[in-house]
Specification:
11-stranded mixed β-sheet, 5-stranded mixed β-sheet, 291 residues, globular, 2 domains, mainly beta, 33% strand
Length: 291
């Protein structure tokens, strides 16, 4: 099941994608929240109420996918947790090439740094060094603490595509990355959430790719994560309670713009960046300059 956030009639709504159509769940049942995170909290991760609503949808509840104004798959994620340095070849192309991490590298993003599918990622006025990063995102469905790799998947509601856009100049001004990772509207999240039952456990074995203006920049496989999804969850939940609606970026493969030779490649106004993950979807964002 593909669950999509979208805007219509001046409000955020939730839909189920079927082919070239979207079932407007609020048009089926007005008590269904317009935020997937709230649905997950209310139903303790159970998505069957949404599936049941979609099954009984009248024709009037269906709208065309084409032309939809997408929202974030989770309108108001509680935490946005990010994992850096998770593909060995990416580690080798960066400043940590001689310091291979033994543990997951964790940092956070704010909600204001994210934009949905179809909306522009902004190159900030402060720097031209806006880089693309193709990433698998997982969405937390159930409250989780002290999980093990054996039971880690129990907390996952589904997966989405992410473009973990980074302003490299500011990422490298200090030893902490958060400033460079949190410029307003520099990261993409979408186009929807694919429920966990639609992909292999832990989203293993999926091709992940970024394209800039149609040119392939990154191409890898989620099998090559140094810290796979289960291990990451076990590590994080030692300290942080994962809550329904939290989202986790799982790191990017090699081929990022700052490592390009002989000259780095930055996203700029007029570009289009696509993040394509097998079985999940294609996240597309145009690039504009901050006004």
């Amino acid at each position: 099941m593909k669950i999509v956030g979208f805007a219509a009639n001046g409000a955020l709504r939730l839909g189920v994608v079927e082919g070239d159509q979207v079932i407007d769940l609020q048009a089926v049942d007005s008590t269904i929240p317009g935020d997937l995170g709230e649905c997950l909290r209310r139903n303790k991760g159970d998505l069957s109420p949404l599936k049941d609503a979609a099954k009984r949808a009248p024709a009037a509840a269906r709208r065309a996918l084409k032309g939809l104004t997408f929202g974030l798959p989770v309108a108001a994620p509680g935490k946005v947790i990010c994992l850096g340095l998770n593909y060995l070849e990416h580690v080798k192309e960066g400043s940590q090439r001689d310091n291979i991490p033994k543990f997951p590298t964790i940092f956070m993003r704010g909600r204001s740094s994210l934009v949905p599918h179809g909306q522009p990622i902004l190159r900030p006025k402060a720097s031209e060094t806006l880089d693309y990063e193709a990433e698998l995102i997982f969405i937390v469905g159930k409250r989780a603490k002290h999980l093990t790799p054996a039971d880690a998947y129990s907390c996952i509601a589904g997966y989405a595509c992410g473009n973990e856009g980074s302003v490299r100049e500011f990422q490298r001004k200090t030893t902490q990355w958060d400033m460079g990772k949190n410029f307003d509207r520099t990261g993409g999240f979408g186009p929807w959430m694919v429920t966990a039952d639609e992909v292999p456990p832990g989203a293993k074995g999926l091709k992940i790719e970024s394209r800039l203006n149609g040119q392939v920049m990154q191409s890898d496989n989620t099998d090559n994560m140094m810290f796979p999804v289960a291990e990451t969850i076990a590590y994080v939940t030692q300290g942080m309670t994962l809550e329904p609606g939290d989202i986790v970026f799982t790191g990017t493969p090699s081929g990022v713009g700052h490592a390009r030779k002989p000259n780095p490649v930055w996203m700029k106004a007029g570009d289009t960046c696509e993040i394509d993950i097998e079985g999940v979807g294609v996240l597309v964002n145009p690039i504009e300059n901050e006004k």
